[in-house]
Amino acid sequence: MRTRVTDLLGIEVPIVQAPIGSASCPALAAAVSNAGGLGMLAGSWLDLDELRAAIRATFDLTTQPFGVNLVLEWPQAHRLQVALEEGVRIISCFWGDPAPYIPAVHAAGGVVLHTVGSVSEAKTAVASGADVIVAQGWEAGGHVRGEVALSVLVPAVCDAVGPTPVVAAGGIADGRGVAAALALGADGVWLGTRFLAAHEARVDPLYQARLLEASECDTVYTTLFDIGWPSAAHRVLRNSTVERWLAAGQPTAPSRPGEGEVIAIGAKGQPVLRYSDTPPVAGATGDLEALALYAGQCVGLIWDVRPAAEIVQELVAGARAALARIEQRGIGTGAA
């Protein structure tokens, strides 16, 4: 499945593992990259030594390209410097202006992907020098930049910034979604929720069990889990925290039910408050069900937890099968 994105990034198939915050890890990124896709590390919340160690651990597990994601809500110059010093040449940015960071990446011979939620944001990023635009639909899990559905956003962004390659993000969990994104004009896809259900993802089994149980109607678009990242919209599974808040009439902080309550202990031993932006990662303890369970609407298409390599293979095989079915039906060929 060769596209402009595979050629530009040096990968075999146009499948990108979204960085998925603290659930990402070297094992997951390397597994996706070894399977021919692009694995990603979330660098935004690691201190510099942790980031350096994560990058080196990933290089120990793969000789294939992988990337580091930086959320630009906070200054990231030092983390970018570490990533480039360690040999990473694929940098993705989100939630802010990538312009101050792009020259350093290009000077190192690297490539910049920038995630957007609108056409205007895409145009600005390309004008700043971004090499690839990731168009994130409203269906996406985790933090969501815009409010436009993927089926509208992707072709609109493709029309606006072509020939800059576009990667589709949000609502994709199987090969049919991959084929649909390609049909909309994308040169690749970006999946987060599906890779949360990978063996290598750094999440508690309870989180993965909730993903498998959920339907497409079980997510909420909200700003509820805002401790750590204020006023940033996100999509999560309904859980006890969400239901208590809804039942209370959706009050604002500091009047939400259980405000200030420590409900878990994080993997590093830190207290986690109700309404924190922290998901239930591996090693956390406490009322993990009540934490932020990030997931996109595509969660209704996820039925099992599998090795990341198998997920990549299944996505590619499913996309090829979907495209073959279209061809067999004569759609677009003039056949009756």
Q: How many strands in all? A: 14
CATH class of the largest domain: Alpha Beta
Whole-number mean pLDDT: 97
Helical residues, percent: 25-40%
Compute the separation of the termini in Å.
28 Å
Q: Major sheet, described briefly?
A: 8 strands, parallel
What is the alpha-carbon Rg in Å? 19 Å
What count of structural domains?
2
> Could you give the order of strands across the largest sheet?
1-9-8-6-5-4-3-2
Low-confidence spans: none
- Provide the CATH superfamily of the largest domain: Aldolase class I
Structural class: alpha/beta
3D architecture notes:
The protein has about 325 residues and is of the alpha/beta class. The protein has two domains: about 5-200 and about 305-330, Aldolase class I (TIM Barrel, Alpha-Beta Barrel), CATH 3.20.20; about 205-300, no CATH class. Helices cover about 35% and strands about 15% of the residues. It has twelve helices and 14 strands. The strands form three sheets. The protein has an eight-stranded parallel sheet with strand order 1-9-8-6-5-4-3-2. A three-stranded antiparallel sheet has the order 7-11-10, with no helix packed on it. The protein has a three-stranded antiparallel sheet with strand order 13-12-14, with no helix packed on it. Helix 8 links the parallel strand 8 and strand 9. Helix 3 runs parallel beside helix 4 and helix 8 crosses helix 12 (about 310-330). It starts with a helix and ends in an 8-residue tail after the last helix. The model has no long low-confidence stretch (mean pLDDT about 95).
